Amino acid sequence: MSTGKRLTGFFSVFLASIIGLPLFAQPPHGPLRILEQYADGSVTSPNWSGYAVTGVVGSVTAVQGSWVVPTAACDGRPQNSGASFWVGIDGYTSATVEQTGTDSDCSKGTPRYYAWYEFFPEAGITIKTISVEPGDAMSASVVYDGTEFTATITDERTQETFTASKAVPSAKRDSAEWIAEDNAYVFTDFGTVLFGQDETGVAATCDAKVKTKTAAIGGFPSYHAITMVGSKPGSLLAVPTALSADGTSFSVQWH
Questions:
Q1: CA 226, 229, 230: angle at the middle one, nearest 5?
Q2: For the chain, how far is it from start to end, CA to CA, in angstroms?
Q3: Sign of the CA dihedral with 8 first, then 10, 16, and 18 last
Q4: pLDDT greater at residue 23 or residue 153
Q5: Nearest Cα to 83, choosing from 67, 101, 66?
Q6: Is the pLDDT score of 182 beyond 90?
Q7: Among 5-14, 46-55, 138-147, whose mean pLDDT is lowest?
Q8: Residue range 3-246, CATH number
Q9: What is the pLDDT at residue 28?
Q10: CA of 46: how far to CAs of 6, 23, 41, 185, 236, in Å?
Q11: Taking 60 as the threshold, does the pLDDT of residue 11 lie above it?
């Protein structure tokens, strides 16, 4: 990452410690930043890894996903780190993201796991009514009803669920995503995160609805694998596998 970003991160952590604010109180997510695009549709990015399905503006009305909450490798490390795993609409080529997911973070060497939702550019909100643990299968969806987006997330272990709705007038609704995201100034070592029904047993994930078609990621002609890369040439931060044979499932490996 750039030196400027590291300095900004240091200052925010230092300031939070002085005034008593909780670190990672609200996940600082954001749209995809594309570095390179390739002929097969894949891209590289400094902040996202996973898959996206794209369509014309106004065509995406639903996305569903599932994943297994990965373990944060904190090992008593003094530095703070973060990693987010989510499903959402928008953000691939637009300025808003309607999303919900979980985090596997490290706070002063201690793992922290929690669920959240966000209608970016508004700040993310931590969901306190869901008790997330590593190894939990999570299912989530974001649905547009013509007026509002509704984000729903469920812990399949506890059956705790949460729903939030909001109108986002500037949303383009031209993409759906299943993502591991670097949401901090240090990216949590999460090992591997598993997405989709083959990995979680949750049916109809990872699916999207684009125009009148509902299908898994691999059922769309325009889907994109996203590899997260570092600032040094050739460095990798997170890499998605190829889709499973049924087009529903994949994993992302931390590097």
A1: 160
A2: 14
A3: negative
A4: 153
A5: 101
A6: yes
A7: 5-14
A8: 2.60.120.700
A9: 64
A10: 14, 22, 17, 12, 9
A11: no
